[in-house]
Amino acid sequence: MRTWRKLSKLAAVTTLAGGLAFTGASAAVADGGPAHEKSAALACGGNVFLDGIRALATSENGRDEVYLEADGAKIWPAGGSYVSMTAGQRVEVDKCVRPQAALRLIEVDDLDPNDVIGRVILQGDVTRDYEFCCGDGGRYRIGAVR
Ligand SMILES: [Ca+2]
Ligand SMILES: [Ca+2]
Fold first, then answer.
1. Which listed ligand is nearest to 116 at the C-alpha?
2. Rounded to the nearest 5°, which phi and psi values hold at 51?
3. Which ligand has its closest atom nearest to the C-alpha of 81?
4. Class of domain 2-145
5. Distance between Cα 105 and ligand 2 center (Å)
6. 3-state secondary structure of 31
7. What is the pLDDT of residue 124?
8. Where is the signal peptide (predicted)?
9. Nearest ligand to the C-alpha of residue 136?
10. What is the CA radius of gyration of the chain?
11. Where are the domains of the chain?
12. Are the CB atoms for 125 and 146 separated by under 8 Å?
């Protein structure tokens, strides 16, 4: 599965490098591969595994600086105050949260107050994608694996 994952990432990079528009059709959950999802979700015990997050549209020109909260506490990224993301980019989250956690995606601004891109309440008994939308025009999709 490791090889598959690398190939899948390589394919994504190639697609972007080729200048093809990202269609947003592939689910964030699907990007990680079923085997990876399964083992990661098992490692979360009864909780939900947050797989990866993809920027479908950024709220700012070029890059957003985003971080993720669960139930009001920052959970991602672990090392640093935010992750800088461009449209189409996917980044691993790899965090376990409780099944009905309230997630918020925040976009950091230096001078203005931070923007809330969106909030979702997990439906912890199913594996599915969620979208943070559309604070300041940003739209992000996260895969949650049960
Ligand atoms: Ca910003
Ligand atoms: Ca902003």
1. 2
2. -85, -75
3. 1
4. mainly beta
5. 12
6. helix
7. 86
8. 1-27
9. 2
10. 15
11. 2-145
12. yes
Residue with tokens 């230096």: 110
Q: Cβ distance 46 to 97 under 8 Å?
A: no
Residue 108 to residue 83: CA distance in whole angstroms: 10
One-letter amino acid for residue 106 of the chain: I
Average pLDDT along the chain: 83
Closest CA to 85 of 119, 43, 54, 123: 54
d(CA 114, CA 66): 10
Return the pLDDT at 31: 57
Rounded CA-CA distance 14/145 in Å is 27
Q: Confidence class of residue 71 from pLDDT cuts 50, 70 and 90?
A: very high
Chain centroid offset of residue 8 CA? 17
Q: 65 alpha carbon to ligand 2 midpoint, in Å? A: 8
Give the C-alpha separation, 141 to 24, whole Å.
9
